[in-house]
């Protein structure tokens, strides 16, 4: 299944949230927090690769950068 750009944004936001939980002071279960972060980041990367292959207009790197820019600065520049 190909992911939409909005799906990719949500996956990147989830990966960033998991990273914040992993690096937060006083994390009770560091191993679980780390695994959650790695899993979320891997899901994002897999979805980006799949999206780029299905879309064919942008490279995987271009898709990833457009998503990260949208997450950091808002908007959906580079995709529709």
Order of helices and strands: HHH
Structure class: mainly alpha
The radius of gyration over CA amounts to: 14 Å
What is the percentage of strand-forming residues? under 5%
Portion of residues within helices: over 70%
Low-confidence spans = none
The helix count comes to 3
For the sheet with most strands, the description reads: none
Mean pLDDT: 91
Intertermini distance: 17 Å
Count of β-strands: 0
Overall 3D form: elongated
Descriptive keywords:
single chain; about 80 residues; mainly alpha; 3 helices; about 75% helix; elongated
Quickly describe the structure.
The protein has helices at residues 5-23, 30-55, 60-73. By secondary structure, the protein is mainly α. Helix 1 packs antiparallel against helix 2 (30-55), helix 1 (5-23) packs across helix 3 (60-73) and helix 2 (30-55) packs across helix 3.
């Amino acid at each position: 299944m190909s992911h939409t750009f909005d799906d990719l944004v949500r996956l990147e936001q989830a990966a960033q949230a998991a990273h914040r939980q992993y690096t937060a002071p006083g994390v009770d279960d560091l191993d679980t927090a780390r695994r959650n972060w790695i899993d979320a980041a891997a899901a994002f990367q897999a979805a980006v690769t799949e999206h780029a292959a299905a879309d064919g207009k942008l490279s995987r790197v271009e898709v990833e950068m457009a998503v990260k820019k949208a997450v950091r600065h808002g908007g959906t520049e580079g995709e529709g």
